[in-house]
C-alpha cells in the first residue's frame, strides 16, 4: 500500500517534532509531538478507515522505511 500524500506530510511533521523533543523546552516540544501524533492518526483514519491494527503497523513501517 502506498501512503497518501497527506499521511506522508503528517509523518514528516511527526519526525520533526520528535527531533525537537530533546531540546531544552521539553514540555512544549512534547506537546508538539503529541499533536503531531494525533494529526497523523486522524489522517490515517480519514484516508484508510477500514485498516486493521496489523495493517496500520505495516503502514507505519512503510513510512519509517521511506523516511530512512
Q: Globular, elongated, flat, extended or rod-shaped: what is the shape? A: elongated
Number of helices: 3
Secondary structure class reads mainly alpha
Domain count? 1
Count the beta strands: 0
SSE run: HHH
State which percent range the strand residues make up. under 5%
What oligomeric state do these chains adopt? single chain
Averaged pLDDT, please? 86
How far apart the termini lie comes to 18 Å
Helix content: over 70%
Radius of gyration based on Cα positions: 13 Å
How does the major sheet shape up?
none
Q: Poorly predicted ranges (pLDDT <50, ≥5 residues)?
A: none
Could you name the key traits of this structure?
68 residues; mainly alpha
Describe the structure.
By secondary structure, this protein is mainly α. The chain has one domain. It has helices spanning 5-20, 26-47, 53-67. The protein is elongated and about 40 Å long. 13% of the residues are buried. The model has no long low-confidence stretch (mean pLDDT 86).
Strands, helices and their partners?
Layout: H1 5-20, H2 26-47, H3 53-67
Helix pairs in contact: 1-2
Task: Give a brief outline of the structure.
By secondary structure, the chain is mainly α. It is 78% helix and 0% strand.
Amino acid at each position: 500500500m502506498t501512503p497518501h500524500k497527506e499521511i506522508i506530510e503528517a509523518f514528516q511533521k511527526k519526525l520533526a517534532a520528535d527531533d525537537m523533543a530533546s531540546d531544552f523546552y521539553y514540555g512544549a516540544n512534547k506537546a508538539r509531538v503529541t499533536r503531531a501524533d494525533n494529526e497523523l492518526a486522524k489522517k490515517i483514519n480519514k484516508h484508510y478507515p477500514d485498516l486493521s491494527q496489523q495493517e496500520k503497523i505495516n503502514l507505519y513501517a512503510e513510512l519509517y522505511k521511506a523516511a530512512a
